[in-house]
Design brief:
It is a single chain. The chain is mainly alpha-helical. The protein has 2 domains: 33 residues, no CATH class; 66 residues, no CATH class. Helix content is 38%, strand content 9%. The strands form 2 sheets. Strands 1-2 form a two-stranded antiparallel ribbon. The longest helix is centred in the last third of the chain and has 28 residues. It is elongated and about 75 Å long.
Length: 134
């Protein structure tokens, strides 16, 4: 392991697999990134607002959020060209099969909520939605 002195003369231990920030980054001397092995049982839990829907709402916003999550970037210019829409940048980007599967799974939540709402709507109308076996 390598030891690095940060601005406060405290040694920051950088593991062999630790990744430094770019030169000039304000946290380069005191912080590092460490990649962990993928966990097949890891579930993303997004804090804050909900993820946008793929099938409804603002398509450009959906494309922007998905590119932000899945495309490597340092500045917004890495995500899309100035003269293209977010949808065009989204369509141009090649997502991995795992990323595509995750985006599909993000939408399942909304599909389930839609089905629940439809079921409750039918129940309020007094419709017999449970099939009879007679």
């Amino acid at each position: 392991m390598e030891f690095q002195k940060n601005g406060s003369n405290v040694e920051t231990q950088i593991p062999a697999k630790g990744l430094r920030f770019e030169p000039g980054h304000p946290l380069r001397e005191s912080h590092y990134l460490q990649c962990t092995s993928p966990d097949p049982y890891c579930l993303p839990n997004f804090a804050g607002d909900t993820l946008p829907r793929r099938d409804q709402g603002d398509t450009d916003y959906y494309c922007c959020v998905m590119l932000t999550l899945f495309k490597p970037w340092r500045t917004g210019k890495d995500l899309k060209k100035e003269d293209e829409t977010w949808k065009e940048a989204f369509d141009r980007h090649v997502f991995t099969p795992k990323q595509t599967r995750l985006m599909d799974n993000f939408n399942i939540k909304y599909e389930c909520l839609d089905e629940r709402d439809d079921f409750h709507s039918q129940m309020r109308k007094g419709l017999n939605i449970v099939p009879s076996w007679d």
